[in-house]
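Below is a filled-in request sheet from our internal design queue. Each sheet records the structural input a requester submitted and the sequence that came back. We keep these sheets so that new team members can see what a complete request looks like end to end.

REQUESTER: design group, bay 2
PRIORITY: normal
MODE: inverse folding
CHAIN LENGTH: 457
BACKBONE (tokenized):
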């Protein structure tokens, strides 16, 4: 059998169970992770798993591999990914693995890994792969302990978040693992909760657990309107991402959620630094600065954002994909459930109704993510050429992740995906004419750099 190089991705390990991601391979990954942790002076892993049907047996293989290196394993069972991050802090190991396929279809599973406080990505994941190819392992015999962490996690959120008044909300867990704790958690902080798909079911029989796609929010939108709730919250398959629906049925995408979170943080911590990824609306940094904060734009990707958060000590970070990281009263990891609880807290503290709070948020005319699919590896080469050819007279150019140009009235972005051979584009402006003009400038750049491209706009 050939080695499944393709499962070692930019931010995680991911593949189709029993095909590219087998139990034997996961055991070898466990061996490599154990050896890598020991080389950094760490000898205890926390492991957890989401609600996928393959999770139990893959988790056992993972534990077997880690134990064979001599590292100990604390198995916290079926939990949201943020509960795993929380547990690595509680047990002071900074080291853990979540068996999760996140928002991918049921036949997928994967691993999100951290060692010594660092989330593995890019070269660090390649290093694990190389250890397996070289059989660079160590022999030992660790011990396995099972611990229940869901109640400690829930209690910590409930003790941290205080609601000034009760709120009527709908939560949609999409049958993901968030359902294992979400209802208790939101009732615990004082919400009147209507549940949608909170039974953990790895077949995802209702809709795909990915709140970044509008089609997956339709059930939540209907339920919010039917029940007259103040708002709705949706979580992805492993509950590290949050989606929000306003009472009028409109979606509050993460960059506009970040407006509310940033204002609330800047009230408590004047001058705080807030990080956002290159896909976010330019109204976010403008609003952060107008409220006295320091706005820092950074590369897309939860491991990049987490690394920047650690290095800078910023109070908050957020990505357009829905990963929100609170680093003021929370541990600086992406946690959809905690972000949802903080949204409840700030809405309950506001004198206005939820409807008025959401309605008053500034907005722009913008495109969703547009995708230009290319052959393997080609998208990086084209991105480099585009960056060489880019000359924008009236815009501020940033090349921290692809090419983003901010104009007075909007922005354009082209960036290479780290997970698929695709260029991702996004455009926004305050006016329809502005949007056309910005798209026109980017179209000119693309066409003059490479003729024959079939552009998605
Ligand atoms: Zn996720």
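RETURNED SEQUENCE:
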């Amino acid at each position: 059998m050939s080695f499944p190089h393709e499962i070692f991705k930019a931010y995680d390990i991911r593949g189709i169970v029993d095909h590219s991601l087998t139990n034997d391979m996961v055991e070898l990954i466990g061996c490599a992770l154990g050896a890598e942790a020991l080389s950094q002076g760490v000898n205890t892993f926390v492991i957890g798993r989401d609600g996928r049907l393959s999770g139990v047996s893959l988790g056992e293989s993972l534990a077997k591999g880690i134990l064979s290196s001599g590292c100990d394993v604390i198995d916290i069972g079926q939990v949201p990914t943020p509960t795993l991050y929380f547990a690595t802090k509680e047990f002071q190991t900074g080291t853990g693995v979540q068996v999760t396929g996140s928002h991918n279809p049921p036949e997928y599973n994967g691993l999100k890994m951290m060692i010594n406080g660092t989330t593995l990505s890019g070269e660090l994941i390649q290093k694990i792969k190389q250890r397996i190819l070289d059989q660079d392992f160590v022999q030992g015999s660790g011990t396995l302990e099972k611990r229940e962490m869901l109640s400690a996690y829930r209690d910590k959120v409930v003790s941290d978040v205080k609601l000034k008044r009760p709120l009527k909300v709908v939560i949609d867990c999409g049958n993901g693992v968030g359902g294992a704790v979400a209802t208790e958690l939101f009732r615990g902080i004082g919400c009147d909760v209507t549940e949608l798909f909170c039974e953990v079911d790895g077949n995802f029989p209702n809709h795909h657990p990915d709140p970044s796609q509008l089609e997956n929010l339709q059930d939540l939108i209907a339920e919010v309107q039917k029940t007259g709730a103040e708002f709705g919250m949706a979580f992805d398959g492993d509950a590290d991402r949050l989606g929000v629906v306003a009472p009028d049925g409109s979606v509050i995408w993460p960059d506009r959620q970040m407006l509310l979170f940033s204002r609330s943080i800047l009230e408590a911590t004047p001058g705080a630094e807030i990080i956002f990824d290159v896909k976010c609306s330019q109204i976010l940094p403008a609003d952060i600065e107008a409220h006295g904060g320091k706005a820092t734009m950074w590369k897309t990707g939860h491991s990049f954002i987490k690394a920047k958060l650690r290095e800078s000590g910023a109070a908050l970070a957020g990505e357009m994909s829905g990963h929100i990281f609170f680093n003021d009263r929370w541990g600086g990891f992406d946690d959809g459930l905690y972000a949802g609880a903080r949204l409840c807290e700030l809405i309950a503290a506001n004198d206005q109704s939820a409807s008025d709070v959401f309605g008053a948020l500034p907005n722009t005319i913008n495109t969703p993510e547009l995708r230009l699919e290319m052959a393997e590896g080609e998208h990086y080469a084209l991105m480099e050429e585009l960056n060489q050819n880019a000359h924008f007279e009236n815009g501020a150019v940033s090349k921290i992740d692809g090419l983003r140009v901010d104009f007075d009235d909007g922005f354009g972005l082209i960036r290479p995906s780290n997970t698929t051979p695709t260029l991702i584009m996004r455009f926004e402006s305050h006016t329809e004419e502005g949007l056309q003009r910005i798209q026109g400038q980017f179209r000119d750049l693309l066409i003059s750099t490479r003729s024959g491209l079939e552009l998605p706009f």
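SHEET NOTES:
- The chain has three domains: 5-148, 160-359, 365-449.
- The radius of gyration is 22 Å.
FILED BY: M.R.
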